[in-house]
Amino acid sequence: MKKNIFIILFVFCIGSRYSFSQIMELSQNSVYNGIDVLIESNFATLKGKTVALLTNHAGRTKDCKTSVEAFQKTKECTLKFLLTPEHGFYTTIPAGEHVGNDTVFGLPALSLYGANKKPSKEILSKVDAIVIDIQDIGIRSYTYISSVFKTLDACAEADKEVFILDRPNPIGGLIVDGNVLEKEFESFIGIAPIPYVHGLTVGEFATMANEEGWLSKDASGVARKCKLTVVKMKNWNRWMRWEDTGLQWFPTSPHIPTVDAVRGAAMLGAFGEISLTSIGIGTSSPFQYIGSPTFDIEKISKAFGSLSFEDVEFVPAKYRPFYGMYSGKDCSGFLLRFPPGTKLVPYYTGIKMMLAVRKVYPSLFNASKISPKGKEMFCKATGTDAIFNGIFGKATDEEILRASRKGLKDFIELRKKYLLYE
């Protein structure tokens, strides 16, 4: 009786978001991360191996224990080293800052965001395999997949196995948005020819990179491949938002404290490189505000109102950053809200927003006011110079929005081969 009442209340609370079969699945199952599946199998795939683990404190079991603790408890394999990405093991180091080596849980924690961007030959010689358990956010410019890519590359060269313990994409597995990165703009914030919002899990991305010949070439000019095993999740479906997984979110970096910050970063992150407006950095809701001390909320509301936005709401707001752009000043603008849905196109929406701002405040869009470094980073983040040149030039809105989806259709077709989940 109690179970039936729970299901009725559950259905009532989430309304028509999902089909009945999806509702029943949510009420009965929570997602098992790759680490949970590994534990359930008693570490069978790693039995007898000595490993290094690429992770941080957001890499946790469904019961919120760190993956490091799970590895230290088992006797089936030996954890010899930790490898840490940008932001360090505890994800407290600001973006772009050097991450040094450390000791965590009594283990050497070796940085992949310092002098080295990939595991050294010395480290690889001391282990049988690298295990990757990293909570990515589904955005190309977020460097965790770059660290994964570099690790695959190093292991392919050294003939070492890689095991990926898969995790949900917090934006979901259905949303794919943005132009595909152009070769000349490859960097550590754009490591592979994928859209800005790729809709892949780390395991799917790694499989694609490995199979598509994106890793470095050997002496004969042939792209290397590593021995790759993905430990898949259980109960995760592509339609799921993070809130549907039953998992706790842990900050993956200083400015990604929540899942809504992930969605906001997918919309506004690239524009943070050129500082046209405040995007909430320095507030308790980073990437969830847009504004400035001089914004006229009524005029911009009218400009936004003339556009169609999917699965995002703009709430008029006042806020005061306590560091960063406009530190200590009251800003007029909007708080971004993300109601439930799977139609969000965050990158495309972010560009549409800025084009609306351009109509109200054209003087903001003066290329001579943007530093050469800012332009360089914006083009690396967006993976092209077409959007910068269009926004700061004479391109029409339609031309800019078309550039923001260049290559997307072909990528969506390509990725079908690598989807591991329904």
Give me the secondary-structure topology.
Layout: H1 2-14, H2 20-28, H3 34-40, E1 50-55, H4 67-73, E2 78-84, E3 102-104, E4 107-111, H5 121-124, E5 129-133, H6 144-158, E6 161-165, H7 202-211, E7 227-231, H8 259-268, E8 289-292, H9 297-305, E9 313-319, E10 331-337, H10 346-360, H11 372-382, H12 386-391, H13 397-403, H14 408-415
Helix pairs in contact: 6-7, 8-10, 9-10
Question: How many strands?
Answer: 10
What about the largest sheet? Answer: 7 strands, mixed
Rg, rounded, reads 22 Å
SSE series = HHHEHEEEHEHEHEHEHEEHHHHH
* Broad CATH class of the largest domain: Alpha Beta
Secondary-structure-derived class: alpha/beta
Major sheet: arrangement of strands? 3-4-2-1-5-6-7
So what's the overall shape?
globular
Describe the overall structure.
The chain is of the alpha/beta class and 422 residues long. The protein has 14 helices and 10 strands. It has 2 domains: 222 residues, Uncharacterised protein PF07075, DUF1343 (Rossmann fold); 148 residues, Alpha-Beta Complex (Aspartate Aminotransferase, domain 1), CATH 3.90.1150.140. The protein has a 7-stranded mixed β-sheet, sandwiched between helices. The longest helix is centred in the middle third of the chain and has 15 residues. It is globular.
Output the keywords.
Rossmann fold; Aspartate Aminotransferase, domain 1; 422 residues; 31% helix; 3-stranded antiparallel β-sheet; 2 domains; single chain; alpha/beta; 7-stranded mixed β-sheet
Structure, briefly:
By secondary structure, the protein is of the alpha/beta class. It has helices at 2-14, 20-28, 34-40, 67-73, 121-124, 144-158, 202-211, 259-268, 297-305, 346-360, 372-382, 386-391, 397-403, 408-415; strands at 50-55, 78-84, 102-104, 107-111, 129-133, 161-165, 227-231, 289-292, 313-319, 331-337.
